[in-house]
Design brief:
2 domains; 4-stranded antiparallel β-sheet; alpha+beta; elongated
Length: 167
């Protein structure tokens, strides 16, 4: 990309020029590219999984959110998603396998504790996966969180901690 100090024929420039170059808002010129969005079945499935995880992260309460921001940085949600999707979704697969091993009543408790509405993932799984990833990262970084290790039998506790419903 080339930085534009005084663009051609004017003091400012924006938009595209003849399908060959694009002027951005911060005075940078780049080549014009037709965006690719094939919307394949696999791509849409992955987008739906990401959407489910983000919907679980949105439900996070102010106390835990502040702890995550302090411990993981301003982009704490990106850190959690990156942890889940690392190594071709290896952690997502591991956490899903763990969740699948829960009994039906335990899965129902996780579904009750999870206030988000998943599209691609099983009900209750987004909360479990996000809480488990946040907990694992905090242990690895040595960050103290008011979050219990997510397990089969503590959905109500983790759910309450997630939305700051515990005193």
């Amino acid at each position: 990309m080339a930085k534009v100090i005084l663009p051609l024929l004017s003091q400012t420039a924006s938009g595209q020029f003849a399908h060959s170059m694009v002027f951005t808002k911060n005075n940078v010129v780049r080549g014009y590219v037709i965006p690719a969005n094939p919307q394949t079945v696999n791509q849409m499935a992955q987008r739906n999984k990401l959407g489910d995880l983000q919907r679980a992260l949105v439900k996070l309460g102010a106390v835990l959110r502040a702890e995550l921001k302090t411990g993981f940085g301003a982009r704490w949600n990106t850190v959690i998603i990156k942890e889940i999707l690392a190594n071709a979704n290896a952690n997502l697969t591991t956490y899903t396998t763990d969740f699948t091993a829960f009994t039906a009543p335990q899965k129902a408790e996780w579904d009750t504790a999870d206030t988000s509405v998943p599209v691609a993932l099983v009900a209750g799984l987004p909360l479990y996966v996000c809480a488990r990833a946040a907990y694992e990262i905090s242990v690895r970084l040595g960050v103290t969180l008011t979050l219990t290790l997510p397990a089969a039998a503590n959905a109500a506790t983790v759910g309450a901690e997630w939305i700051d419903a515990t005193p």
